[in-house]
Specification:
296 residues, TIM Barrel, eight-stranded parallel β-barrel, 11 helices
Length: 296
Amino acid sequence: MKITRREFMIQNAAGMTAALTHPYSLAAYAAARGVKFKVGVTDWNLRKTVKVEAVTLAKKIGFDGVQVSIGMAPKGQTMDRLPLADPELQQKYRDEAKRAGLPVASLCLDILHQNGLKSDPLGQKWVAESIPIAQAMGVKVILLPFFGRWAIKQQAEQERVGDVLREMAPIAEKAGIILGLENTISARENVQIMERAKSPAVLTYYDVGNSTMQGYNIIEEIRWLGRKRICEVHLKDNPHYLGKGKIDFRAVIDALADIGFAEWAHLETDAPSGSVENDMTTNLKFIREQIAARKA
């Protein structure tokens, strides 16, 4: 039976509306458009850093999962072990994830903001200790941040990081854990570190906001990196709402879909209005709409 163009447009619009209001329809609709990745959120942008309540709030807003911080020492203090190394806390996360029906998607080794991997010996210790935590939490990706005074700026620093990770990568590889590099250098420079580490356990954690701020062509970089060199993605255009800043998120979604990216894309977005729940809902709705509007 043939249908008119007008009838097709009405049916397509109805399908998009259903996808945005029903999670099961949404998953099928996204898959039909070649979008394989899942949309999560960072616990620190929910303002629930190392708090089990992040799982509950992420579920309430409508995310597919949540990225959890491993935890840092209180300001001016030191610590002997990472907060999420506590078996009781791990169990609380597992229990809440099961109750809410929402997974802990990955972890962030946020203590590297205090003890940077590029030159602080403690950084290497924390990476080693984060691997069994990831195993216990049932996740496969640990984000390794390199920002502020720990940012990778010089070639020698890139080489140093690559050498350190070459020592640690076999441990991660054996455990089935990926160490994701998030920083302010280019995609090609990240690949140089990956090649120096000589392990499939070291990949790029691509952040479209960070890379845009550095002046990189994010669409070109995503396509050049390809599916196999990106472990996860952060979506943000802070301090703006998604779609209100510089970044063309339809193009980002197209690029991720075209390379077959099938992991997690987490919103790391600010709350311009001051209401985390309202602003996260707005940003998630925008991303869902961009996915639904993608041509099949």
